[in-house]
Amino acid sequence: MRQLTALDAQFLHAESATTTAHVAGVAILDPAGAPAGVVTRQALIELLRGRLHLAPALSMRLAGVPFGLDHPYWTEATDLDVADHVHEVTLPLPGDEAQLAEEIARLHERRLDRSRPLWEMHLIQGLTGGRAALYAKVHHCAIDGVSGADALAALLDLTPEPRAVRPPASAPATTVPGPATMLAAAVTRSVTHPARALRSLARMVADLDAIPVAAALPGARTVAAATRMIRGDSGELPEMPSLSAPRTPFNGPISAGRRFSYGSIPLADVKRVATTFGMSVNDVVMTLCASALRAWLREHGALPDQPLIAAVPVAVRASDTQDRVGNRLSVMVAPMPTDVDDPLDRLRTMGQTMRTAKRRFAGAPATWLSELSSVLPAAVAALATPALFRLASIVLPPINLIISNVPGPQLPLYLCGARVLAYYPMSVLTDVSGGVNITCFSYDGSLNFGVLTCPGRMEDVWRLMGHLQEAMDELTASAGPVPDPQAPRPAEMVPA
Fold it and tell me: Is pLDDT at 444 greater than 50 in this prediction?
């Protein structure tokens, strides 16, 4: 058993009447290969019972410290019955994409019960074409991108026939510290907190020019560079561009409502554009998002004359670590060229911006997100975070939105014998990060987008998804016709 880190706990503290802090995904299933041609709730429950030990985050629950004086602890839920976490619903006719998105948005609005392991699955029947869907959500305090992908992989197979899974090895049961032990540890941490907070602030100073809002303070770049020099950091880091976020209709306090849209783009088209113009796949993804946001803002007469600012989460969990609970992530903050009119200029600018951000991150991996989460004492952070987030959204939003791009497997996977046709990810909306979140996941030849919004900030969520499709069409046309693999190649020049 271990205690939540300050960053893990931050995802708990961020929750409020208008904010839920779970991440989720929607798998579209073709049940033709499943037993009897249908995925049942009971089959899903049996699968989970046999593989739960492969996803440790799903069998842990929170143990709170008395009076909230310290971060909670993780403890094993020995009485867990997965059936309590698996639900089923059938869509009314006709069971189309809009109905599915509406149902998923409704499910995503609901907070998870903190007295139980922090996850739920909802099997959704009645989709057109005989399809089904599985919506699964897990609290962000329990998983990040890497551990979330591991939890998903534990349930999936490479063939319709489920693989044999070795039962869990016996392990000593974990014990929960008693209230007296928790309080003693909390008092010790409270006494030492000022020193730890000062160390966190000192480490943040070196990243001052890469932190939204702080980077705009007079002398921030000079102070950050001097701090790195004093610390003896080797190598010159690229200068960060302006990170001042403009005002947009989708920035500001959010409501409890959610809207969701989703769609897919052929990954081959994205790779062809990337290859043609010498960019990475992620550069193209970021450009698509910039183009879609620009188009939406222009339609609403609200396009700023300066770039939007996006936060891009980066997983920093070591691939060989055995710890698969909690968060090991950082963030890159980058301007998006929504102020650039020409699509190809926009692509080139985005590519250059991302290369600068990556070089900066590689030279000095940003730790400020974790350090910032550690500045306030646990008890104060739990009470103050929602209010601070809302105040920041009103006074000076640090970013305009969060964009995540998660690479996935490029081969078909199966769940309970049903083929996974697509997987659409979903993330978190908060006051401070804005009323729009775009997440994409590459799988089996497609780039799958999930767009989550607050209806008070962006009601027409399907329009933004449409703009993403239009932006891809625009770049594909610029890349020229698709090469014909059957066409004869030009004769090679032979030197005399």
Answer: yes
